Every structure is written in C-alpha cells, then in structure tokens.
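User: Fold this; tokens only.

Assistant: Input:
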Amino acid sequence: MEVANIATRLDGTAYYVVALKKTPPFKGALDLAWNKGRVSADDRIINQVIAGDDEQLVTALVEGHHRTQRGVYDLLYRALVACGLHTRNAA
C-alpha cells in the first residue's frame, strides 16, 4: 500500500490518495495507479484519484486528520477502510 498526501486544509485535516496492490510485488502501487490512469497530477504533484477496484489494484481517496496529529496508524486504518478491506474479511 502506498499513501500520498494530495491536500492539507487549514483545519488540520488532509486528503490522501491510497493505492493498494492485491498481489506481489507490492512495491510501485502509485506507479501502477498512474499507468492505469487512476491518479492525475498537476506540475508533478498528485492531485486527484479515481476510486476503484480491478484485478491488480484498489485506489481510494481518504479524508482525515494529518498523520502528524493522529499518527500513522490512524491513517493506515482509514486507508484500509477506504479500500474496502473491512467488507472483504467479515468475521
């Protein structure tokens, strides 16, 4: 999974792009999302994501507090929820 901050707001929240590869090698999830046209950039900065799911990749948009305020585990949890992992592994 790779996460990229695309916007930070004045209230301390931020928007993040999440790219989650389903199969190894897991490195390069954002590159794969770029090659599939699922993320776009303006002046070399990622600024938009098309949320979706296919056989190789899950992409999503996450909104939440900046990682320096709530920590990386809160961001990781939000990213996994945005990718729909909670529905895939229902107990």
